[in-house]
Amino acid sequence: ARRLLLECGDLNWAEINPDIFGSMIQAVISPELRSSLGSHYTSVTNIMKLIQPLFLDDLYTEFADGRTNEKRLRKLLNRISHIKFLDPACGSGNFLIITYKELRKLEMLIWEQIESLNHGLKEIPFSNVSLTQFYGIEIDEFAHETATLSLWLAEHQMNKRFENRFQTHVDPLPLRIGGHIVHGNACRIDWNTVCPHNPEDEVFIMGNPPYRGARLQSDDQKADMALLLSDDIAFNNLDYIGCWFYLATKYIENSVSRFAFVTTNSICQGEQVGLLWNYVFHQNIEIYFAYPSFRWSNNAKDNAGVTISIIGLRTISNNLPKHLLAESSMKLVKNINAYLLDSSNIIVEKKSTSISNLPVMDFGSMANDGGALLLSPSEFEELIELNNEAKKLIKKIYGSLEFIRGELKYCLWINDEDKELAYSIPPIKERIDACERSRHESKREATNKLAHYPYRFGEIRYKETESIIVRSVSSESREYIPMGLLGKDEVIIAPNFAIYDAQLWLFGILTSKMHMAWVKAVGGRLKTDYRYSATLCYNTFPFPKIAEAKRAEIGRAAEAVLMAREQHTEKTLAQMYDPAHMPADLREAHTLLDRVVESCYRAIPFHSDEERLEHLFALYEKMTKE
């Protein structure tokens, strides 16, 4: 230990980034603790993506506009000295540290410009930026102490830079207040007591609050949500970060303050949109900048690879610009909706029936049998060899893996009229008895009742017709969700979806880029994969009325897709729909199908998903109003 300390003492620590403590915290605390807190260390790059559009770009614009006017420059110095910054989940203080350093850099630029205008300075320059302008809340005590220390280090470094440039010495000792960093639970503390403000005060709230999906939240986190949200938001399926959006919305109401968070992109997808954003938008709040979903990581040990968005909000201001941002682009837009699209503030709600009058989509059937009614290929062969009559009691089944990977699986499918035959075949009777025991042993009363009919599936939705299978989850890397057309003796099992009395034109619509764009925008996610929903993706999908001739045209294009698949039976659907290895003829067939489907919406082809969604949201708004 002594040797390591001496070696550290030989290093040059003058230029160390205080934000490195964030990485250290992430490496030191156990992965289990980090996961339970939902904490993710934020890199400097991603911090800059947030603070630049939140306030820094505005300050630099003011600097550029006033660089020839000393009075305006001094007014800007005064403005900077009065802004407050709050990170209500500050961790080891990275957002506050980087913000402090960026303000001090701007401050030096302003003093240099004043010096240039006057051909020298009339007075000894001084820094107006104080650590007392910085506020934070942190639930972890070690991280809370680290944030205070890191701010002191940042202040000392920037004082040295200021001194080297303007020969103004700032005595670092004794240490002064290192920011108002409070140790506590941000969901249980009144933010106004941490960072008091008036409506005219500039307060910028920022940070990377914890993400925690509804099924992964601890009892304490669920209690936080119940305490905060129960009066205003149905929170049971909302991510934990919804608490921060809720509290920040309340904090900035009817004020000039603003906030922006690095957030899990799930709050802009699926049913969470309706849960959170209906409330936010009704408080006279708008999104004024956003980075839509992108993957990120950092240099921390065992860092969390997640897909995030960055979202900035303010009180509605019709005369100020709004921007959708990307790594190398900035798009000026009229409005940013809850899906982070340039469209009106329409929120897509679940529908029990299709707004486009499409046929019913339902869950597949569910066995609820403890595995007793399901057969592997070898078990199927053994049973048929033993008694050929068993054939009429067996059907192929398709779950997600069986369909996408081309795997075979079977099930006992016994109707009431075939019950006597089933019980007369000993191996089948054994399976029926096993199913009965499994259902009796269940803790659910509804499952116990199914024990009266142990020879059949617990939930039967199968119809003896051709069907369309829609997988409930599909990889985000695919351009299309692989769907299929199955025969009348093939059973779709939940959680996949089924449409019976299937028609080619409907298969064509569902496997088009128009539908895919809608699913990406309004559907949920399982991690980063697409999660399909009948009530949220299918029933809400806006499709115009078309003539029978157009249906036939779509059907022919859909058939070409299926025929192209048939040319590659050596590949599984998973391999065929891998974007890097998609067969050329299959891609060509899909491109033709996309053109035919898109022609139902307008004569001119769409050039991007953004164009498709702009059109779809406008049509959805029109159809739901009608």
Can you walk through the features of this model?
- This protein is an alpha/beta fold and 626 residues long.
- 43% of the residues lie in helices and 15% in strands.
- A 9-stranded mixed β-sheet has the order 3-2-1-4-5-7-6-8-9, with helices on both faces. A 4-stranded antiparallel β-sheet has the order 10-18-14-16, covered by helices on one side. A 4-stranded mixed β-sheet has the order 11-13-12-17.
- Strand 1, helix 6 and strand 2 form a beta-alpha-beta unit.
- Helix 9 (219-229) packs parallel to helix 10 (242-252) and helix 17 (504-510) packs across helix 20 (548-566).
- The radius of gyration is 30 Å and the shape is elongated.
Distinctive features:
alpha/beta, elongated, single chain, 4-stranded antiparallel beta sheet, 626 residues, 20 strands, 23 helices, 9-stranded mixed beta sheet
- Computed over alpha carbons, the radius of gyration is 30 Å
Helix content: 40-55%
Strand order of the largest sheet: 3-2-1-4-5-7-6-8-9
| Average pLDDT score | 90
Largest sheet: 9 strands, mixed
Cα distance spanning the termini: 75 Å
Number of helices: 23
Shape: elongated
Strand content: 5-15%
Quaternary structure of the protein: single chain
Structural class: alpha/beta
Task: Report the uncertain regions.
Answer: 299-303
Strand tally, please? 20
